[in-house]
C-alpha cells in the first residue's frame, strides 16, 4: 500500500507536500520491510526470543556466594579526588541498562548488583535497535522467573513504546545511522528516570548515575568503591575485560578505558548526579543533556577498573538474536539459518562462534589472557557466572542443554510463541 503513494516514506521527495509525506509515513510498514526483514524474519526473531527466555535447566548453585565486600575502601582509583577519603555516607547508585533480549546476562548482572546498586532502570524498546523490527517486551515475560528474585523489586522497567520506537526506526531509515534507535532509547530512559525521581526523590546530588548495556558488568567490588569515595570530576568510565566468546582470551577493544590499559574496555559511563540533575530542572528541555554511553572517551584519565563485558555470549539463540537485532552485527547468513534445523549443525555453528572462526577479524585482535600483562587489574568474572559453570556452559565452549530444543522451536506453529509461551515452556 505504501508503494502506491506518491511520496514513499521515509524518503521525502522535494515535490511532496508535508501532509502527503506524513500520510505515507503513517502507512509505512517500517524500515524492517525496507531493509529486507520480512515476516519470515520477524517470526525467526520470535523463535529466538523464545529460546533466550527459557531458564537454564541447571539449578542455581546454592553452595556458592559472592565474596564479602571489604570493610574499608581504598579510594585510590584514578577517577577519585586525589585526597579522597571514604565518604561518611555512601552515594546511592542508579544504573540504567539498555536491554534487548540478553536474559542470561541480565541474570548474572542482577546477582552482581544486588546490595551495591540501589535501583536498576531497565530500558527496553518494542523494536530492535538494528533495522527496527518488532520485538517482544522480554522483561514482561521473564521477570517472574525465580532467577530474577535477587533484585526484581529494585528494577524499574522503562518501556520505549511503539510510537516512539517507530519514529526512531523511521529516522534510522532516513539517516542510515543505525545508532539512532539506541540514542533515542537512552534519551527516553533518562527522561523517564527524571520523572520517576521527581516523584520518588530517591536520588540527589550526592549520588551516582551509570549508563550501561546489559552485558557491561562492573564488579561489585568496583561499585562498592564507587559508592563510597568522592569523584574528582563529573564523568568517568569503567574498565572491563572483554573475553569475546572464550574466557581464555582477551579482546583488544577500539575504546579502552585508558591508554595504559589497552585491553580494558572503557564502559560503562559513570556520572556524578549533581551535574546531571542541575541541567535538567526542566527535564523535557532539549538543553537537558542525556547521559549516554561514551565508550571510554569521556575522560581517559578518569576510570575505575574491574568487571567483564559479556559480549558475544555464544549460547546459539543468544548470539543469533544479537546478530539480527543489534548494530554490532550485520544480520544472519543463510548458513546461520540452515544450522537451526538440526541439533548437530546448531552445535557446530555455536562452536565456530565460540572459537571465533566465524569472526576472524575479532580472532586476530584477541590474545590468550596470560599475555595481557595488566590482566589482573581489570578482569573480574561476575561471581554468579563463576559459581554456575553448569548453568552457562557456552562460556566454556560446551553444549547448552537448551540447544537440543532449537529444531523443535523452529518447527513450532507461530501461535505457540505467543506471550507467556506457556505451551512450549512445558515440554512439547
Ligand atoms: C558450586 O559451588 C561450589 C563452591 O564454589 C563449587 O565447588 C562447585 O563445583 C559448584 N557446583 C557446580 C555444579 O558448579
Ligand atoms: C580527567 O580526569 C582526571 C582524573 O580524575 C582529572 O584530573 C582531569 O581534570 C579530568 N579532565 C577533565 C577535562 O575533566
From TrEMBL:
Keyword Protein biosynthesis tagged: no
Originating species: Diacronema lutheri (Unicellular marine alga)
Record protein name field: Hexosyltransferase
Keyword Signal attached: yes
Signal peptide from the UniProt entry: 1-34
GO cellular component, as recorded: membrane
PANTHER family according to UniProt: BETA-1,4-MANNOSYL-GLYCOPROTEIN 4-BETA-N-ACETYLGLUCOSAMINYLTRANSFERASE (PTHR12224:SF0), BETA-1,4-MANNOSYL-GLYCOPROTEIN BETA-1,4-N-ACETYLGLUCOSAMINYL-TRANSFERASE (PTHR12224)
GO molecular function, one term: beta-1,4-mannosylglycoprotein 4-beta-N-acetylglucosaminyltransferase activity
GO BP: N-acetylglucosamine metabolic process
UniProt KW keywords: Signal
